[in-house]
Structure to design on (187 residues):
């Protein structure tokens, strides 16, 4: 029995020595060469469909509030003004939309309505041609500045909506506050 115990003790000692040398004799060397590329794995499952995003407004353009001066046509007596806008193209005219608004109030107290505007005997209507937005009226609808408050009224703004823009039917274009909120317009 003593011999078996000694033999087992020697075996245990040599095994531990071999294990110890194995782990301590290794040193970190240079990295070996890159191995061959492995086989392509199987295609994974398709992910869940995401929620529908909000309608985009990236291609919609709008002007600042503009001061416009009307001229009277000597022949017809109507008043007109023109805005030069190079982004009013044949393509926009045939596939997109143009919205024009007038602020009858002041910048602080807005009273905004879309054109065309008809009330009583007053008519203000926009017309469009390449590079041009023309506004005709049967009264002088020029921007004016109050002599008492110094505030402007009858300022104009236009919005260009390219064909295919998803916003065309997503908002009530006759409600300026809804348009402003939807497009994130700044006054």
């Amino acid at each position: 029995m003593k011999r078996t115990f000694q033999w087992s003790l020697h075996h245990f000692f040599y095994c531990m020595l071999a294990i110890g040398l194995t782990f301590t004799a290794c040193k970190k060397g240079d990295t070996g060469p890159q191995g061959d590329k492995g086989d392509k794995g199987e295609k994974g499952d398709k992910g869940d469909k995401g929620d529908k995003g909000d309608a985009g407004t990236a291609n919609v353009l709008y002007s600042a509030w503009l001061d416009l001066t009307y001229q009277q046509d000597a022949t017809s007596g109507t008043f007109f003004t023109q805005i030069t806008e190079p982004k009013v193209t044949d393509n926009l005219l045939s596939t997109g939309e143009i919205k024009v608004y007038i602020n009858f109030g002041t910048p602080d107290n807005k009273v905004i309505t879309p054109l065309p505007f008809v009330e009583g005997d007053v008519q203000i209507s926009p017309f469009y041609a390449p590079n041009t937005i023309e506004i005709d009226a049967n009264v002088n609808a020029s921007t004016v500045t109050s002599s008492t408050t110094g505030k402007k009224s009858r300022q104009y703004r236009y919005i260009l909506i390219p064909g295919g823009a998803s916003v065309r039917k997503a908002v009530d274009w006759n409600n300026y506050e809804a348009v402003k909120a939807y497009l994130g317009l700044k006054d």
